[in-house]
């Protein structure tokens, strides 16, 4: 259960990070947060309850969860000056760039209250980030569609407040859609943590230098942005739309992937750890049909995704390389059905992953073994030589 202490990458033994937060078995397709199976949490829990579990190691009591929820509601407002920050960026700015830069900017309002060694500062800034990042994310969305920002409505739940900030408009009362609310809650839970993935490792590495939570989380957002990581959910929808619009058959596309033509990849497939079906992808796929039906949306891209999966799973190229759908393969179709623009998909991944990043940042800070992160190197460059004429 504790996993390996060292991993052999073929030429350099790298001591693995020890963590008690999330357990993954890549061969068996197992994912557990603090020992609880992801399938049970996604079906029965809430984003904030799971956030508490990741942060503190146990499920909260009803009173603890109530107080946690209340504290977060009371920290959703952004400083009015920060709202003007958004107007300094072009309306074409990618929401992930807006999110990472506004998160870094957030720290400028809390200088003197961001000491990583001060437990009160750490608690308060955990609440601030959980409360304010969804607001920043929604403002990035509103900016990209040229609509006015709304103020948070703290009478709403975390997810409903987030939906209203994204889809509500000044001129109308926003009606919460319970199907969207439950589907988004479930998707956020599925993204809350995933062990030592690239963005979480980035948060830990940046935090190990003594950088505060805001700077560490902003770095994690930038790492997540890449299309090989969190950016894949956006890349999947772009890939499906390109296949649809090109008129190319799915089989022909798969042949191009197998021939590695122009470096094309089957986005949303493959994983550094899962060499079996990503348990999250299974849960997302199961709910995709249900959510689209309940939202009254028929999206041919979902049918296209299923056809792609079916062909790939029955093809030796993918089987030999143990390539299966990962969490990003089906999520975008659901986000699209909810009304999110494609460029918001990775922002939604970031909001989901935030509690895991914060939990890992704390775990690293509280680990007496923690030293400033400095990965080992095997030097492969030139031997010693002299400067000409020396
Ligand atoms: C996330 O780490 C995490 O936990 C991440 C994440 C999280 O929750 O934080 O799970 C979220 O990032 C999921 C991954 C999202 N990315 C994508 O869907 C992008 C497409 N996937 C690939 O880029 C790739 O699968 C990776 C980067 C995800 C994993 O790469 P690996 O395990 O290092 O595999 P590899 O690059 O060594 O490839 C092995 C072989 C190669 O072929 P050969 O050289 O042996 O002939 O498989 C091929 C690769 O070309 N391959 C693919 C492929 N992924 C690997 N071929 C086509 N399409 C793909 N998607």
From TrEMBL:
It catalyses: oxaloacetate + acetyl-CoA + H2O = citrate + CoA + H(+). Coiled coil: none annotated. InterPro entries: Citrate_synth-like_lrg_a-sub, Citrate_synth-like_sm_a-sub, Citrate_synthase, Citrate_synthase_AS, Citrate_synthase_bac-typ, Citrate_synthase_sf, Citrate_synthase_typ-I. The keyword Acyltransferase applies. Gene3D superfamilies: 2.20.28.60, Citrate Synthase, domain 1, Cytochrome P450-Terp, domain 2. One of its GO terms (molecular function) is citrate synthase activity. Pathway: Carbohydrate metabolism; tricarboxylic acid cycle; isocitrate from oxaloacetate: step 1/2. Keywords: Acyltransferase, Transferase, Tricarboxylic acid cycle. Pfam families: Citrate_synt (PF00285). Residues 370-390 are annotated as: Disordered. Transmembrane segments: none annotated. PROSITE patterns: CITRATE_SYNTHASE. Belongs to the citrate synthase family. NCBIfam families: cit_synth_I (TIGR01798), PRK05614.1 (NF004126). This is Citrate synthase. It comes from Microbacterium pullorum.
